[in-house]
Amino acid sequence: MHRAAHQLVDRPPVFEDPLALRIIGEEAATELREGRDERAATASTGLRAFIATRSRFTEDCLDAAMARGVRQYVLLGAGLDTFAYRGRRDGLRVFEIDHPATQAWKRARLGEVGIAVPDGVIYAPVDFERETLREGLARVHFDFAAPAMFAWLGVTPYLTREAVMGTLGFVASLAKGSEIVFDYAEQPGENSVHRAHFEALAARVAAAGEPFRSLFETDALVNDIRALGFSFVESLDAAALNARYFNGRKDGLSLRGRGHLMHAQV
Q1: CB proximity list for 243: less than 8 A, separation 6 or greater
Q2: CATH code for 45-265?
Q3: Average pLDDT of the residues in 17-37
Q4: Which residue in 151, 150, 168 sits closest to 159, CA to CA?
Q5: Residues 126-153: tens digit of each pLDDT
Q6: Which of 33, 150, 154, 257 is deepest in the core (most CB within 10 A)?
Q7: How many Å apart are CA 51 and CA 20, to the nearest integer?
Q8: CA distance 151 to 153
Q9: pTM of the model
Q10: Do residues 64 and 41 touch, judged by C-beta distance below 8 A?
Q11: What is the DSSP string of the chain?
């Protein structure tokens, strides 16, 4: 919904997603267009900007990975991500990993709104209470001998630290040249405004039944990631992302102290 709202209210968009409004359905799209959904409101600008930026950064990293020869792209917790349906990239295999029920809902949604599924899209329903990510990928003939890029967006705050590090360790064990981009929730600092924003967001997600389960301190997380075996780690906070994607905008759109991305390569 935030990605869809970004297409409507932020000009120019930082992240262009022509399918975002279609995949959410006409009723939800109308709520955004007519200003009845809070995600199109000024109060949501910071979060909307972050959600758009994390997708833009991830796909920028994918372009760079493909230039180096990577031809496997894994979306962990794919949700309603539309990358695979926005035009093919020659030779790229796109693996969408999600809970079986969530993935079935998405596939039904694609059919309802008339979005075709191109060749090269591989669905891998994985119930992590019953099997591992490795088992789920093996079932759909993922090539463990070849490098892959992983996108893991909007997921880690809702997992335990052990689960997060376990997945990162799995990616670190893959072929040289593999990489991952993920976002995470930081421990709130002393800034009262930032802390208030964080606490309000934490309260909202808890009320929705998905409380934050892991918070990280950036320097310690970088050290932990390097210890897993990643040879390159890039940490981007709001200031770095603003400088890269929002410099010179006239509408004031920017990240407002929230959101942190991590990019790591094997």
Answers
A1: none
A2: 3.40.50.150
A3: 95
A4: 168
A5: 998 889 999 999 999 999 999 999 999 9
A6: 150
A7: 12
A8: 6
A9: 0.91
A10: no
A11: -HHHHHHHHSSS-SS--TTHHHHT-HHHHHHHHTT-SGGGSGGGHHHHHHHHHHHHHHHHHHHHHHHTT--EEEEET-TT--GGGS---TT-EEEEEE-HHHHHHHHHHHHHHT----TTEEEEE--TTTS-HHHHHHHTT--TTS--EEEE-S-GGGS-HHHHHHHHHHHHTS-TT-EEEEE-PBPP-S-HHHHHHHHHHHHHHHHTT------B-HHHHHHHHHHHT-SEEEEE-HHHHHHHHTTT-SS-----S---EEEEE-
> Whole-angstrom distance between the N-terminal and C-terminal Cα of the chain?
33
The torsion angle over the Cα atoms of residues 234, 238, 28 and 199, rounded to 10 degrees, is 110
Backbone angles phi, psi at 187, to 5 degrees: -60, 130
Domain boundaries, the chain: 1-40, 45-265
Neighbours of 190 (CB within 10 A): 6
- Which residue reads 């790591």 in tokens? 264
If you search the block for the tokens 């959600």, which residue do you land on?
51
